[in-house]
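In this section we walk through a basic example: taking a raw amino acid sequence and producing a predicted 3D structure, encoded as discrete structure tokens. The instruction is simple. Fold the sequence below.
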Amino acid sequence: MPVINRVAGYAEEMRGWRQYLHQHPELGFDCHETAGFVVARLREFGVDEIHEGIAQTGLVALIHGRGEGPVIGLRADMDALPIDEATGADHASTVAGKMHACGHDGHTVMLLGAAKYLAETRNFTGTVALIFQPAEEEGGGGGVMVEEGIMDRFGIGQVYAIHNAPGLPFGSFVTGPGPVLAAVDTFHIHVKGVGGHAANPHETKDPIPCAVSIVQAIQTIVSRNHYAQDDLVVSVTQIHAGSAENVVPDKVYVNGTVRTFDPKVQDMVERRMGEIVAGQAASFGIEARLDYDRHYPATVNDVEKSEFAADVARGISDQVVYREAREMGAEDFSYMLQARPGAFMFLGAGEGRAGLHQPDYDFNDEIAPLGASYFVRLVEAAQPVKG
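The resulting token sequence is shown next.
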């Protein structure tokens, strides 16, 4: 695979950066140490501008090329997950209850590797905007950076991101036109009855049968209110009630997730869920409330930019898959793609590896030069030096 030779020469340095970040994970917007590490490296590389404190700990660094031209954005996420690590690696997390279980440490390092090369060579016109964002896993840091004006402030015209993908063949690149990841919504259902002694249920208003009926009924949204060939997931993931075998509880909490690609489908699900909750509560003579929260929108690749990204990847790997392929996971890079055209790319980390968000997951350092080379070639192909 034609990894850029100079970038290949950074491989051990990148491994060291990545494993250091892996040992020091941070959550959400609280990525102060990670951002400080990134800024220190960028200053060593000699980037032209560093703008800190965006979305609390996010930053945008600028590298100017040879002559006037547009601005291309490259994004990496920096936050970890609230998981106890079980890899047993020498570079395992040193922070209890936190680990890089999604590879954001690797994403950060791939963009740092690209930054080092681009600052050295500047074989492009215009400007590269390096976007390092917090809170992808929870909090929508990418959306906050957009709300704080990074696209207009830095004149970004197009934007790209990459995500490692354990389970896909090593060094493969996978993307496609249109939706690639789903919108994610969360529902919270609060069922309130009247508790009492389990030996005298007639003196109570038992919320458990009502909650069970609600859970069963909302499953029919997918099977009976939605066209079967469109993508929709409604999953109940939590039910909490009761404290003892001889007590009828006074409340039940039901929680879950909805994954869709079409805002009209989101509207339908929210409407039907509200009708079901209200109707079931009325039938049992108790109270119930639905709180329905819309979080990340669908991640939608621009058709032209996704084709361009696939062409760039073909210059690096002979395993490029370009197809309409939608997955039900979610990404807050979606906010950036709503603001500017661009593409989200998956990079195969190899088969037989632990999956994302698992305690035994670890980023494959061998793919870092591939990701860095992809970022570099995107810039050089999008904004070539003329003549």
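Looking at the output, two observations stand out. The first strand starts at residue 49 and ends at 54. DSSP finds twelve helices and 16 strands in the chain. In the next section we compare this with other chains.
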